[in-house]
Amino acid sequence: MLGFRQRFFGAGQFFAVARHRRGGGAIVVHADAEALLAFRRDVGAGSFIKLIADNETIRYAVVQDSGGVLLASDGVTEMSAPAADPFLGRVLSADPPQMRFTRYRDEEILEIAAPVHLGENDATLLRIGLSAASLHRAERTALWRIGISTLLLLLTGFLTTGALLRELRLHRRAEEQRERQEQIDAMGHLASGVAHEIRNPLNAVSIIAQRLDREFEPSQESEEYHQLTGTLAAESRRINDIVSQFLRFARPAPLNRQPVRLDALVAHVAALLQGEAADSGVTLISQCREVKEVMADGDQLTQALINLARNSLAACAKGGRIELTCTPHGDRILLSVTDDGAGIDPENLGKNFNLYFTTREGGSGLGLSIVQQIISQHDGTIEVESAPGRGTRFTITLPAR
User: Fold this and answer.
1) Can you name the residues that pair with 381 across neighbouring β-strands?
2) Which residue from 29, 244, 256, 397 puts its CA 20 to 30 A from 215's CA?
3) pLDDT tens digit sequence for 374-399
4) Radius of gyration of the chain (CA)
């Protein structure tokens, strides 16, 4: 290799390579020195530095050793020396690249520095400075995307959890309705057997009490005598009515399903009970929206609403208020009876539909059980919400036609 030589004719240099030829002589190749140097610049380390620095987020790229800057991107005139910078000294003593935040031309920079090996010189560094503002923007964008993704995941999770909880509530409610119906059926069969055993002697007691009242007149304390026989006959009739309710409960009549307008039915029940409510000093109103017809036994649903309304009347003091409502709810219709009465104690709230359960003096414990049975026969549900001193709301849900 001859290397760079001065031109014999004209200015400039050329680069020459000569090789011995077997047959004698030599093969000589030469190239223009300026063209060769330009080629080296385009494909060498300098082009690599330039390529890196062309990235808009990169503020500088520098290769330097202890003596100073060897290669640098455009615009770099001065950089700190490894001997004067403890960070660069640590980089030279460790193989893994390291990074730091620093200042360059009044701008915050993330500098990445790594040792590089160029021939025999081991004290050489590659330093690349990245704009911290660009990194912060990228970080904010990444955080925003992560936040949106997290929000979507949470929203999906909440919706899924809500749907699962709703299904669990519906399943639990159906199980409670089934267990309650099984309990009511069992109690009803028991009541049927007991009622037949009671009714015959009860009728005999009632007849005897009536005959004693009509056919005998004591010589002393006649008024008390007639009062006692009258009470005996009246209580016998009351017990007979309870027995009749037991039998109706144990052997419910089959439904006579017909198209029924529940808004009209609610208004009818409110009109029937206006007199009783007025006598008790209670305001009874009905508020119904137009709803679809349901296939139902109108007489039995009327009886169920009357039982609920009378239950509310018994719970209200003078000046109280009862509201009957009927509203559409998707493919179902909601009937509600709401009062501002005494409310139900929490320990009794789950027992309201149990057969024979009552907290009212003189109550039979049959009214709400019969209501639950009627609603269950109509493929509906009934729920109660109450708190002591805050009133009670019974809500019936029935499928629309």
Assistant:
1) 397
2) 244
3) 888 888 888 888 888 888 999 999 88
4) 50
What the block records as the tokens of 193 is: 């057997």
- How many other CB atoms are found less than 10 A from the CB of residue 235? 14
389 SS3 class: coil
Closest residue by Cα to residue 315 from 265, 350, 288, 352: 352
Exposed (0-12), middle (13-18) or buried (19+): which is 157, by Cβ within 10 Å?
exposed
Decide: 243 and 199 in contact? Cβ < 8 Å: yes
**Encoded amino acid at 55, one letter:** N
Reported as a single tens digit per residue, the pLDDT across 224-273 is 888 888 888 888 888 887 777 777 776 777 888 899 888 889 999 999 99
Q: Which domains does the chain have, with CATH numbers?
A: 3-40 (no CATH), 57-135 (3.30.450.20), 254-399 (3.30.565.10)
Q: Which two tokens stand for residue 381?
A: 């549900």
Residue of 59, 48, 56 lying closest to 101 (CA atoms): 59
DSSP output for 276-309: HHHHTT-EEEEEE-----EEE-HHHHHHHHHHHH
Q: Using alpha carbons only, what angle is made at residue 89 by residues 86 and 93, rounded to the nearest 5 degrees?
A: 140
Say if residues 113 and 104 touch (Cβ distance below 8 Å). no
Separation of alpha carbons 307 and 314, rounded Å = 11
